[in-house]
């Protein structure tokens, strides 16, 4: 099933998080209505295929340092 990714950058030292880029991650399955590989053969889409994403998931790009703001001491 496809899912929505919310990308953010996390800074371990100051615990700030930034960024809210969203992207749809394609599962490439033939039995998913949202996939780019969704089957074109006749089928009962509503019962055999996933009809929606599995919901947003946070993808944190973990950085150990401080963010720019905190690194500058502001
Ligand atoms: Zn999918
Ligand atoms: Zn389908
Ligand atoms: Zn910070």
Please characterize this protein's 3D structure:
With 74 residues, the protein is mostly beta strands. It has one domain (3-60). It has two helices and three strands, in the order E-E-H-E-H. The chain has helices at residues 45-48, 68-71; strands at 3-11, 17-25, 56-63. Strand 1 and strand 2 form a beta hairpin. The longest helix is centred in the middle third of the chain and has 4 residues, at 45-48. The site of one zinc ion has 7 residues, from helix 2. Residues 33, 38, 43, 45, 49 line the site of one zinc ion.
Task: Give a quick summary of the entry.
With 74 residues, the protein is mostly beta strands.
Strand portion:
35-45%
- Helix and strand sequence: EEHEH
Compute the separation of the termini in Å: 43 Å
Compute the average pLDDT: 91
**Helix content percent band:** 10-25%
Q: What ligands can be seen in this structure?
A: zinc ion
- Number of β-strand runs: 3
Assembly level: single chain
Q: Which class of secondary structure composition applies to the elements?
A: mainly beta
Task: List key phrases describing it.
74 residues; mainly beta; 35% strand; rod-shaped; binds zinc ion
Fold blueprint:
Elements: E1 3-11, E2 17-25, H1 45-48, E3 56-63, H2 68-71
The structure holds zinc ion (3 copies).
């Amino acid at each position: 099933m496809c899912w929505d990714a919310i990308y953010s950058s996390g800074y371990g030292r100051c615990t700030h998080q930034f960024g809210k880029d969203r992207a749809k991650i394609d599962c490439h399955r033939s039995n998913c209505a949202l996939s780019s590989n969704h089957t074109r053969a006749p089928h009962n889409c509503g019962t055999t295929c996933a009809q929606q994403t599995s919901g947003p998931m946070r993808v944190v790009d973990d950085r150990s340092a401080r963010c720019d703001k905190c690194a500058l001491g502001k």
